[in-house]
Design goal:
This protein is mainly alpha-helical. It is built from six helices and no strands. Helix 1 packs across helix 5, helix 3 runs antiparallel to helix 4 and helix 5 runs antiparallel to helix 6. The radius of gyration is 17 Å and the shape is elongated.
């Protein structure tokens, strides 16, 4: 099956998405994982987690930046302990960057065109993993 060409605007959007993810990966590579398992984002000048300050417990996104930094160092267990959804999101970004950039360069989707259903299923799955991981970290 021959896929339709991407319009110039779509090519720019796809390339922009790939470059944004690449920038996040490069940033994660430049960070040192915080030994607490969260708080690595503070190296970027961002404030500490307000939820943690107010409640004394981690929020669902606590540890995501730490997870990305750990993935780059091959510290898989530490990444999953820090934030499982963040770890999965980082892996998805690693896979997506070349796919998006090559698709933009070729002017057509490489391998498969993403559908709304694919995005919905992946997003719902990621939210479910984040919720379950957060519940496990908060209560156990």
């Amino acid at each position: 099956m021959v896929q339709a060409r991407l319009s110039p605007v779509r090519r720019l959007l796809v390339a922009g998405g790939g470059l944004c993810l690449l920038a996040l990966l490069v940033t994660a590579n430049s960070l040192s994982p915080d030994p607490r398992g969260f708080g690595t984002h503070e190296q970027l000048g961002l404030a500490p987690c307000s939820f943690y300050r107010w409640m004394g417990r981690e929020c669902p996104t606590c540890g995501a930046t730490t997870a990305w930094a750990c993935v780059w160092r091959g510290e898989w267990a530490a990444a999953m302990r820090a934030n499982l959804a963040g770890t999965l999101l980082c892996i998805a970004a690693v896979v997506s960057v070349p796919w998006l950039l090559l698709s933009a360069g070729l002017g057509r989707w490489l391998f498969a065109r993403p559908t709304a259903r694919m995005v919905l299923v992946a997003g719902t799955g990621l939210i479910a993993v984040a919720a379950l991981d957060w519940a496990q970290r908060v209560w156990f």
